[in-house]
Structure formats: C-alpha cells, structure tokens
Amino acid sequence: MKILVIGSGGREHALVWKISQSPLVTKVYCAPGNPGIGQIAENVALKVDDLPGLLSFAQKEEIGLTVVGPELPLSLGIVDLFEEYGLKIFGARRNAALIEASKAFSKDIMKKYQVPTAFYEVFSEVEPAIAYIEKHGAPIVVKADGLAAGKGVIVAQTKDEAIVAVRDMLSGNAFGDAGSRVVIEEFLRGEEASFLAITDGKNIIPLASAQDHKAVFDDDKGPNTGGMGAYSPAPVVTPAIHEKAMTEVMRRTIDGMAAEGRPYRGVLYAGLMIDGDSVKTLEFNARFGDPECQPLLMRMKSDIVPVLLAVANGDISGFTLEWHDQAAVCVVMAAKGYPGDYPKGDLISGLDLAATMPHLMVFHAGTSSAGTSFATNGGRVLGVTALGDTVKDAIDRAYAGVSVIGWDGVHFRRDIGSKALGR
After folding, report:
1. Rounded Cα gap, residues 411 and 346, in angstroms
2. Model pTM above 0.70
C-alpha cells in the first residue's frame, strides 16, 4: 500500500524511515517533508494545514493510510475530514486532540477523572492571575493555553518572573491566540519522563519509556525548547512507575475521554513528573513526541504499519509491540540562538561521514537543500540518534556522530542521557 506521512520534522523523518521498512508498503509520501526525508520518500509540496489539498492528494494517489505527525492538522480536524471521505488515517479526531490544543481542557479532564496532576487555575485576565501568583509564591508554572510549539511553558523561579510571563501572554500577545488564556499551576519537583501509548479508544499498547530534555542548556538551564534530545529506555520509569502510569494516567484518561463522547484514537503522550513513587501528569500531547519518536523508533523491533492501520480501523486488540533490548539516544543539533531568533542557510558539513558510522541515524528536522549539500533551515536542525548495548554506549555513539557534523554557530547539549547514567 501507499502511505502518506504529514509533517516536516525529525519525528516525521523517523516515522518515514520506520514505515518504509515495512513489507506492506510500496511507496511513502511525506507532506511537506524535508530534504533528509526526500532521500527515502517522495516529498509533496503541501502544507500541514492545507486540509483540502492533503485530502485531494490522498484520494488521487489512492493512499492506503495517512499518518499525522504534528499537532496542528489534528487540532484542525484532518482525521474527521479523511474519515468522512472513507480514508484510513492514524491520529486523534479534532474533539479528542483538544487534550493537547487546550491546556485548560486537559487539566479539567485530569481533575474530573482523578488523573494525578499539579493544582492549577485558569485565567484570561491579568489582575486575578497576578493575585493568584502573589498568594501561592514561586517557583510556579505559567502555561499558554493553546498550541505554542512546545515553547509556551514558563517555569518561573520568582514571583516577578511569573508576573512578567502572565503579562507577556495575556496582554503582550507573546504567543498570539495560544496565550489568550493561561494555566497557572503548582511547580512539581522530581524527574520528568515521557510515557507514550497507542490506543484505539479502548485498548492501550504502551510504548517503551523515554526521557526528553526540554531546557536549551546543560543541567536543564535556560528557556524551554521543543526538546534538545531524548533517550530510551528511561530508568526512572521502574516497573512500579510503569504500572501507575498505565492505571492512573493512561487508563483513566482514555476511559474519561470516551465518557466525554471524545473517544481518543492514535498515540497519546503523557509528560510525567516522577518523585520517588509519586507520578503526576504535567501535560498531554496528541501525537508522537519530537525528539522522543527518534530513539523509540530506533528501538522498535515490530513492524509499525500493522498497528497504525489497526488504530485507523478502530481495533488493536491482540496486538503487541516488541522492542530491541538496546538503548537509543538522540542529540538535537540546533541553530545558534534557538529557541529565540536564529539564522538560516548555514552550510552543514560532515553528514556523509556520519552516514558511514554504524548504529547511527541522522534525522533531518530543519534543513534545506543547497546544491548537492544541505543547509540549516530551522531552530532544531538535526537529531543524531544512535543505538547501543547500554545507555552509555548509545550516548558515546550519538556524540561521535555529533562530533563529525558542523556548521557556523551549531549548538547542542552535552549531557543528554546523563540522568540515566546517574541511576
């Protein structure tokens, strides 16, 4: 069958790479894709929010399954549209994707169905929000309600910092419509982990554990980004924590969404804060994490296509996923200045050499073609991802790959995976 993947980042490159290995697949398209994806699939010049264009393409090319990477088309209702025309598609419907598209909705669902999370309040006016901050003190967390590409969360260490964040979002338009409401919530201590599961709205298949690194600098310093690297498995997710995540977070949420008349199908991502044996939910995403997707798919032994198709058909009962025992580590190489303003068009060197290194994949995230070479074209440019027998082996291989790749002002964290070594 032919498969269409929607998106243009490192997550989509990893999905295309994994999907193209399936014996069920004759051709993979990616819209809009990127130059790295273009080496293994056919890129289609359609934007992720061009729903009529994507529908028309899928009909014309008789696409057997569409796989949605980013949150924007999900929140716009691409799954509903494709299903209306009888096309098979993997992803959450619009009314279920709200679990990511609105932080306030997500928190209300958690509260109603007793999913453990931080205490919170939702505000659309500056003064009541400031009064709440004054009452509760800092550290405290301020979140833009809507989609802000992973950057709409401010972990404020002081009350002044929190008040500035509130003013920026509610009256300063820092995140546009996404910040017209804010969620202010308790600061949780502990270690973060990413817990993903594939679901048909009833049955749940957990993916392997993973951990993302959101802050831009080493030791979790600096502003939050879309993610500077990830590894899998995450030792902080012990068997006991895994059981709690499945019963108290995934099961309650998926049953709750069904009870709300918003059955959740696709992949559900829970950002967890783990402190000893306590598990609390930071947020939900309605899609594969980026960069968690890269190490997870490197470790996935099973063919991914049958389970994606089973979700689109509405029943994954009887399915399981097998995983390689090896660990995988992804180091994101970013442009100078990211997550703020950054230059584009810097020539990238060393990709040919990295391609010869064993157990290593370089997933393109923000690149453009420059003749026979590649140039930077985004904040997160590459995800250098390696397999190893241990986390340390995988870290060493990933950074060996990073060491041969370069461009002017390249930036990356040097401590990806160090928390796993600490355990």
Report:
1. 13
2. yes
